[in-house]
Amino acid sequence: MTNTIGWELYRTFLAVxxxxxxxGAARALGLAQPTVGRHISALxxxxxxxxxxxxxTGLLPTDLALTLREDLEAMHSTAAxxxxxxxxxxxxxxxxxxxxxxxxxxVEVLPPILVALREQxxxxxxxxxxxxxxxxxxRREADIAVRMTSPQQDVLLATRVGExxxxxxxxxxxxxxxxxxxxxxDLAQHALIGFDQETPFIRAASERQPLWKRENFAWxxxxxxxxxxxxxxxxxxxxxxxxxxxREPELVRVLADEFVFPLTTWVxxxxxxxxxxxxxxxxxxxxxxxxxxxxxxx
Length: 298
Known about the structure:
Layout: H1 7-19, H2 22-29, H3 33-47, E1 52-55, E2 58-61, H4 63-87, E3 95-101, H5 103-108, H6 110-120, E4 124-130, E5 144-147, E6 156-171, H7 172-178, E7 192-194, H8 200-208, E8 219-220, H9 224-232, E9 237-241, H10 242-245, E10 251-254, E11 261-270, H11 277-294
Helix pairs in contact: 1-2, 1-3, 1-4, 2-3, 6-11
GO biological process, one term: DNA-templated transcription
Organism: Hylemonella gracilis
Keywords: DNA-binding, Transcription, Transcription regulation
């Protein structure tokens, strides 16, 4: 086994794992497909193992290849963080900051906060990652995250910005056609818009509201944005952040006294980034902007 293996070989290997084929990896990396093939062969030769088996359906990763994936993704995150740090060298607040948030927060809440920040610091570069998956800040999958769960790792700097209430809503057209539930038990007679895969938030909501379970939903989707689109289309009754629903007069709140779920919101980053001016500027702007939002001023 060769002592030193260039990062470009590992990067290509990870791209093949993520894309599922050499052609997909070539497109993602901007390389020619034969180059990708040479990288994989060189890596297999250096490691002295087979990473893929060839079949009629394409490349199949070996068990060893799959066990390496987590470490490779950590290496990729670290390399990306180093690149962001390098672009931020020099005087003033400049360079890239990677911000992670849920779909709905990233689309509906953060843009005006971040636009105002870049007007103050035009040399900032913002990478906005929208995912309901919790990004690993220790591994630098993101630099700063907006989370609806309390961070557990001691190396993270976290500021609680407030609570975002979530209620049940339906479009006026749905209420006109199907009536309005008067108590929670009435939801059994309505088309409910909900999740497909369970998350910690959904698990907690289901414990408090037994009817809010997957098997009771007529519409199942894990995208918050798609659920809001279904609400606006009059598909049924679903959950929505109260502040966002206020922006849409056609959405009617139902069972306001019986269903309210507060989302405690945090802004989080690695403790080691505290003294870096650009990370601190983005962190402070998010804390201030999200506090206004949780207070109904966003």
